[in-house]
Design a protein that fits this description.
7 helices, about 110 residues
């Protein structure tokens, strides 16, 4: 059986660049939140000259699904991830400096 030929990409670099601009204007929402706002947002941005795209690109952008928006904006989203954050657990150095009162060493005469 012959392998199937890959499908031609539907969204070119202009559509993805316009999507990233809309995504940034809306303050980086998820695809499910961005998809319903695109039909209103794209004409407004084009009217004010913030989005320089033709009618075909605008139609592709408005018709993009939420899952496709998430896939295509993944590269822009990856720049927002904090790097260098340590996920280590605190060691016993601090624990050894805090005096703990146990039942074995209980002294009723001293306060605390």
């Amino acid at each position: 059986m012959r392998p199937r030929a890959p499908r031609a990409p539907k969204y070119d670099a202009r559509v993805v660049a316009a999507l990233e601009k809309c995504w940034a204007v809306e303050n980086a929402p998820a695809g499910k939140r961005l998809a319903p706002t695109l039909p209103e947002l794209v004409p407004v941005l084009r009217r004010w000259g913030e989005l320089d795209i033709d009618e075909d690109t605008a139609a592709l952008l408005v018709g993009m699904s939420a899952a496709t928006i998430d896939r295509r904006s993944a590269s822009a989203r990856s720049h927002l991830v904090l790097k260098g954050r340590s996920h280590t657990k605190p060691g016993s150095l601090l624990k050894s400096r805090i005096p703990m009162r146990t039942w074995a060493a209980d002294d009723e005469k001293t306060p605390g």
